[in-house]
Amino acid sequence: MDDLLKFLHARYEADNHAYADVAYRSGANALLDSHLPMLDLVDMLARDYAAMDPSDARFAGLGHALRVLAQSYAEHPDYRENWRP
């Protein structure tokens, strides 16, 4: 699961850089309908999962949710099929 968390963090970083480039080139108003809040929530969930005790009742469910969210990057060359839920 560590590899999946690293993958999600790398995608978060890449997407944020892309949005920053758009904001730089087109102005902040270009981001009004962006997915930045969702990216922040996914990164927060990944950080929560990494810090969570495996005995926590939410651990398995959050792991599954992260696998589902990672599917949006299934076309990325670093995505692994064994991460599918």
Structure description:
- By secondary structure, this protein is mostly helical.
- Helix content is 62%, strand content 0%.
- It is built from three helices and no strands.
- The protein has helices at 2-26, 36-51, 59-70.
- Helix 1 packs antiparallel against helix 2 and helix 2 runs antiparallel to helix 3 (59-70).
- It is elongated and about 45 Å long.
- The mean pLDDT is 90.
Q: Would you report the number of β strands? A: 0
Termini, distance in Å?
12 Å
The backbone outline, from C-alpha atoms, is: elongated
Helix % is 55-70%
Work out the radius of gyration.
Answer: 14 Å
Task: Summarize the main sheet.
Answer: none
The whole-number mean of residue pLDDT values reads 90
Number of H- or I-type helical stretches: 3
* Order of SSEs: HHH
Secondary structure elements and pairings:
Blueprint: H1 2-26, H2 36-51, H3 59-70
Please provide a brief summary of the model.
This protein is mostly helical and 85 residues long. The protein has helices at residues 2-26, 36-51, 59-70.
